[in-house]
Amino acid sequence: MITVSDLTKVYLQGKRQVRALDGVSLTVPAGSIHGIIGHSGAGKSTLVRCLTMLDRPTSGTVEINGVDLTAARSDALRTARRRIGLVFQQANLFDSRTIAANVAYPLEIIGADKARTKAKVDELLGLVGLTDAGQAYPSQLSGGMRQRVGIARALATDPDVLLFDEPTSALDPRTTDEILDLIQSLRTHAELAVLVITHEMHVVKRICDSVSLLEGGRIVESGALTDVVNRLDGRLSQALLGIPPHADLGGDGTQVDVLSSGPKALQPVVAHVSNAVGAEIAILAGSVEHLAGTTFSHLRLSVPDGVDPQRVIDELRALGADAALTDSLSQVEDLA
């Protein structure tokens, strides 16, 4: 489990203080995947450095299975860091080493014997689907295969936590999905807690159980994926369900947004409401997503002049959906 409490990082730039992280708190249980998303400059890179103690936070704590990394020093800190496996955007492999030797490197650092090292390397190459690639060199592998090697290397010391920093942003869509499938399969590997830093909504949709939005060094929205998506006025919901908040979608009437989930997402709500108010309600845009085992439907409707929009909203809510005037929702820029 990862437990981050009130994490703050302040840098000095001349006489000016820059607060890169400002009271960040989050928990990632073992066996789950948590996504951290945010624009460039939001504090994602600083968070990675503080979680791994590559950069000591100004205040707050980082605990891995109850061990406080911020209180550890010297040998104790080096031992604690082994509980975190780190995978970067680029695999950062040693070009002069074979794939097997790259995976073996962390074990060499801790002085593991050759027999244990070989057995572990063989096990991990099998786990990431590279059983026959041990004697190849990084230059002979595709980008996706190199990323698999990076994942195998991160697992070499049997960590409790896997931390991914933009793991798929340099990959094509098909390879991205292959890597995401692999990451998802690792959630049950020794009950790992997995934290993914990303700017890609596809990553969050595909593998995350929960998600946090980091902005200006603070977490401004956080929760289980199904909970944050179910908030019609939430920024994460707008981003994940794909209706552009600033798009001029046309239509002569008043625009209404409606969000449904579970079995209600499959109801013919527009036909029902059109019959109830005696007018045709047009669908201007929509998105249907299957996220974390739940189906979500987000529609933007146009209510014709002469029909009370509040009556339409009331009818939609009576069907178990959430509905609101579009211009009453938060206008947010694209988070991707």
Structure overview:
It is a single chain. Helix 3 (99-109) packs parallel to helix 5 (143-154), helix 5 (143-154) runs parallel beside helix 6 (173-185) and helix 10 packs across helix 11 (309-318). The model has no long low-confidence stretch (mean pLDDT 91). The chain is built from 11 helices and 14 strands. The chain is 31% helix and 29% strand. The chain is an alpha/beta fold. The protein folds into 2 domains: 2-227, Rossmann fold, CATH 3.40.50.300; 235-328, Alpha-Beta Plaits (2-Layer Sandwich), CATH 3.30.70.260. The strands form 3 sheets. It has a 6-stranded mixed sheet, with helices on both faces. Strands 2-1-4-5 form a 4-stranded antiparallel sheet. The chain has a 4-stranded antiparallel sheet with strand order 12-13-11-14. It has helices spanning 44-51, 74-81, 99-109, 114-127, 143-154, 173-185, 201-207, 225-229, 235-241, 269-277, 309-318, and strands at residues 2-13, 16-28, 33-37, 59-64, 67-68, 84-87, 161-165, 193-198, 210-215, 218-224, 254-261, 282-291, 294-303, 322-325. Helix 6 (173-185) links the parallel strand 7 and strand 8 (193-198).
